[in-house]
Every structure is written in structure tokens, then in C-alpha cells.
Amino acid sequence: MIQTIRGFRDILPEETPMWQKIETIAAEIFRNFGFQEIRIPIMEKTELFARSIGEATDIVEKEMYTFPDRKGDKLTLRPEATASIVRSYIQHKMYAADPVRKFYTVGPMFRRERPQKGRYRQFYQIDAEVFGIASPYIDAQLIQILNELFKRLGLSGLKAHINSLGCPECRPGFQKALLEFLSARKDVLCDNCLRRMEKNPLRTLDCKVPACRKALEGAPTTLNHLCPDCSTHFDTVQSTLKAQNVEFVVDNTLVRGLDYYSRTAFEILTTALGAQSAVAGGGRYDALVQELGGPQIPAIGFAIGFDRLVHIVEQLEQEKPKDGPDLFLVALGDKAMENCHLWLSQLNLSGLKAEMDYSGKSLKSLMKRADKRNARNVLIVGDEEIKTDALVLRNMETRTQTTISMDDPVAEITKLISNI
Ligand code: ATP
Ligand code: MG
Q1: CATH number, domain with residue 104
Q2: Is the pLDDT assigned to residue 392 strictly greater than 70?
């Protein structure tokens, strides 16, 4: 019997609804933030990836599916989407009318690496790119979009790791310091790192060999070498994320596996798939459009590992009780608690599976509990809602809200919920 190629897999009919759900939510967020969908080819000239991703990277050195076609042209199955989108942006002179463009794309990527859970040779990415905006607010916006997507999927505990890789102005100073540091440790570095030292010393910081990791402890960081402009840029990214309540940590060891990044780089890490791995990664690449033959136009983007995201959401769903309550009452404050308790009894007696929490905790932690209990609906009752006679009934599946009056909430809720 002929089976799939190693590292390639079928996504079976039982699994596709989850893929569709995530894609729909992502498309909605992208639309809200002004992104348009773009679809790019699955194959490109090898040169495109070699030049953009960089010769001394894992992807180009050992992961690409490259082959000559019948006429001998060197072709490669795309290992990522950014290079193709940049090529398309330049090829169609999309910058001519207005350099500011925001794109997203969803589709398969190909990398020949060792398959394991969450790592495949054909895998899928949800990718976003913004052209023509140099402002740090856009860096924060992209991280916020990732945060929003994960939030809408009910994921918590994912944190953005951010770093700044500097620019052509400050990179040489950093590289010099790093080279000095590496030269003093040449005898313990792996062969790969010795080669990287020549070609692109930054890559050594990404080495997974334990001896190299140890030797690189205390290595110079890009953050200590940022020029004033890069420094201000990175400060604004951070203050904006804070103002928007997006959780992040500054991680000065984050360098990313592609050469084209400058300034802000970020990854969203999770331990949900065993060892810590990234569900998404991205960064600014202000020089790439020009390097690939276009005008000097700044850009930034990210890629989400779609397969990994599906695994995480599926895992979360499995942990939830199968038959959660029809309704979870979130009572905020004493008055609300009293009201909710009385309504709860009536609802239970009328045959509805309703629950509440008596701990008096915050809205955020009660919403978390409702989610964990897998409640289909949540009624939010606080002093403000009672005062304004506007209780909030939220459908946790469709994420839609209805306002309920205090007149006869039990009747109204029963009617609404049994209709769903
Ligand atoms: P890793 O360090 O896990 O190899 P990466 O830095 O090579 O990731 P990126 O090039 O940043 O990955 O791609 C963006 C996202 O695509 C990653 O964060 C990850 O979620 C996903 N991804 C990358 N390679 C694979 C793969 N082989 N299989 C499944 N998902 C992948
Ligand atoms: Mg990789």
C-alpha cells in the first residue's frame, strides 16, 4: 500500500472544522485591521529564498526542497511566505500608487526537517505582512493581532517574547563585540558555529548544541548596542504594548532563524506541545524590499504555525468537560451575588443546567472559570449592570452578546438559551 511521504500528512474530515474555525477568526481580525488576502505560488526560483532568507540559515542550508525542473531551472517549494509576498509586491509595483499595503495569506510551507509532533515537512502558516510603515506602532499592532487571535481561541498563558536586532547603523558595533567574544571561545564551538562566525555571527546565538549554548552564556546582546533611533523605536513598541494590555517579555536571546530581520523581532512561545516551542514568529525587515530589487520601503510581518495552533486548541478542548453547563452566572459584588443565587435556583428548577461561583473573584478569573467549565453561555451581573438594568448574556460559542433586563431575567434567559 502506498502511504504519505514522511513528514507529510492528511488533515482528516474530523479535523477540518477546527482549521476552518481558526481561519475564519483570523480572517475576521485581519479584515478589522485592514489586511487584504493575497495568494502566492507554492514554488519559486531557488534564488529568491537563498537571497532573502540568507545562505547561512538552517532553512537554506538544509531544509529546502530544491530540485531542477526538466529544463534545469532551480526551483524550491516555498519554506515560508514572506519572500514570495515581497517578490509579488515588487513585481507588480504595488508600491506605485501607495506604498502602504497590508496582506495576509494562509497555506502550506515545506521544510525538510525531522518530523515530530508539531513539526512536519509540509506544514501550514497563517502569514501577515505590512509594507510602507516604519512606525513602531505597527510592530505593536502585529503583536496585538496575534494576542487577539489567541484570546479569541480561548488560549491563555501564551506570551510574546520580543527583542530588537538593531539596524545597519548599530549592527557592525554589535558584530564586532560578538566576534571578539566568539573568538575567545573557538575551541568549544561546534563546526557549524565556526562557519557561522565567518558568514553571519548573529546565527551562532541561535545554535541548539548544548556546548555552544553554554559557551554563549554572557555573550554580548544586540540590546546593549542599539543606536539611539533603534532604542527609541524599541521603547515605543514596549510602551504601546503595555498601554494595550498585551503581555510580553523582553528576551535578548531571541534572534530568529532568518537573515532579513532588523529592529523588532518576536516569537510567541508555548509549552503546550511538550518542550517550549514557538506558535508564531515575526519581525521587521526594513531592508528586504530593496535587497530584492524594489525601492527602499520598510516592512514587517509574522507567521503563525497553523498546525501547532490547531494542536494547542484541540488539546485545550479535550481538557474541558464534555457537557458543560448551559449557563454560568458571573456575579460581581454582594448585590449581584444575592440576585444571581435566587435566579440560579429558579433556572435549575426550570430544568436548565446553570452554575455559579461564590468566590467573589474578579470578572477576568470568573470568565476563565466559565471557560474551563465549558459553559455555553455566561450571564454577567455586576453593580453597574444592575444599576443600568442591562445584564449581559454572552454566547461563548458565537461570542455574541445580548442585553437582558432585570424585569424577569429568568424567563428571558430560559427563552433565549433554549432557542440556541
Ligand atoms: P522552530 O524554531 O520551531 O523551527 P522557526 O523559527 O523555524 O521555528 P519560523 O520560520 O519562524 O519557524 O516559522 C513561523 C512558525 O511556523 C513557527 O513559529 C512554527 O510555529 C511554525 N513552524 C515552523 N516550522 C514548522 C514545521 N516544520 N512544522 C510545523 N510548524 C512549523
Ligand atoms: Mg525551524
Answers
A1: 3.30.930.10
A2: yes
Which residue puts its alpha carbon closest to atom 22 of ligand 1? Answer: 305
pLDDT digits (tens, 9 = 90+) for 365-387: 999 899 889 999 999 999 888 88
- Asked if residue 187 is part of any domain, the answer here is no
Segments in 5-159 forming alpha helices (H): 16-32, 46-53, 58, 82-91, 136-152
Q: Which of 319, 339, 369 is a domain's end point? A: 319
Residue of the nearest CA to atom 11 in ligand 1? Answer: 281
Domain region containing 310: 16-170+226-319
Mutate to test the pocket of ligand 1, among 63, 117, 125, 259 (most ligand atoms within 8 A of CB): 125
The pLDDT value recorded for residue 419 is 58
Nearest listed ligand to the Cα of residue 281: 1
Helix H or strand E segment including 327? strand 327-332
- Our count of domains for the chain comes to 2
Query: Checking phi first, is residue 34 left (phi over 0); if not, alpha (psi -120 to 50) or beta?
Result: left
Residue 142 lies in a domain: yes
| 155 shares its domain with 262 | yes
- Sequence ranges of the binding site: 80-82, 111, 125, 129, 256, 260-261
Distance CA 301, CA 280 (A): 11
Residue 69 lies in a domain: yes
- The owner of cell 526551483 is 75
Residues 159 and 36 reside in one and the same domain: yes
Q: What percent of the chain has pLDDT over 70?
A: 100
306 lines ligand 1 (CB under 6 A): no
SS3 220: coil
* CB 129 near ligand 1, within 6 Å: no
In short, whether 301's Cβ falls inside 6 Å of ligand 1 is no
